[in-house]
């Protein structure tokens, strides 16, 4: 589960600055999800041929209110596909970062897939649609 404060950070950064990076993880950090820090994930970032350096920039829809106090944002599908794949790469999850002027690169969210996904050839694809929910969120 992602803590509410992390979701608030994502929603505010996306609404304020419009940019965050969606990145894939190629090896399991084995730490409990709550114990992962940015350096744990950066060292495990995917690097298959065709993977965008530094991750992909998702395009977010407008925030919506799904109940009196709950906000939601959804990104358009983010497509990852190898080109010139020579050996399979297993993807364990994704994380999102934001480059802050004050704090530098910040980890916003880390999500481990229930079942890892295998990119075995150039025909393999991963299409991610991220839905972010936050309780007690009021858009600016």
Give me some keywords for this one.
14% helix, 3-stranded antiparallel β-sheet, mainly beta, 140 residues, globular, 2 helices
Which band does the percent of strand residues land in? 35-45%
Secondary-structure element sequence? HEHEEEEEEE
Helix-and-strand structural type: mainly beta
Give the overall form: globular
| Spatial arrangement of strands, main beta sheet | 1-5-6
Cα Rg? 15 Å
The strand count comes to 8
Task: State the domain count.
Answer: 1
Biggest sheet descriptor: 3 strands, antiparallel
**Percent range for helical residues?**
10-25%
Low-confidence stretches: none
Report what the structure shows.
The mean pLDDT is 80. Helices cover 14% and strands 38% of the residues. The protein has a 3-stranded antiparallel beta sheet with strand order 1-5-6. Strands 2-3-8 form a 3-stranded antiparallel beta sheet, covered by helices on one side. With 140 residues, it is mainly beta.
């Amino acid at each position: 589960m992602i803590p509410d404060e992390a979701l608030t950070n994502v929603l505010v950064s996306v609404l304020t600055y419009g940019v965050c990076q969606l990145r894939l993880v190629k090896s399991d950090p084995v730490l409990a999800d709550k114990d992962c820090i940015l350096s744990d994930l950066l060292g495990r970032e995917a690097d298959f041929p065709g993977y965008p350096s530094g991750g992909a920039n998702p395009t977010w829809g407008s925030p919506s209110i799904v109940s009196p106090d709950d906000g939601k944002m959804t990104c358009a599908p983010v497509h990852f596909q190898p080109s010139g794949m020579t050996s399979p790469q297993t993807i364990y999850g994704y994380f999102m970062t934001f480059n802050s002027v004050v704090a530098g690169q910040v980890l916003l969210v880390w999500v481990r897939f229930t079942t890892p996904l295998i990119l075995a050839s150039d025909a393999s694809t991963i299409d991610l649609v991220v839905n972010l929910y936050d309780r007690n969120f009021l858009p600016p």
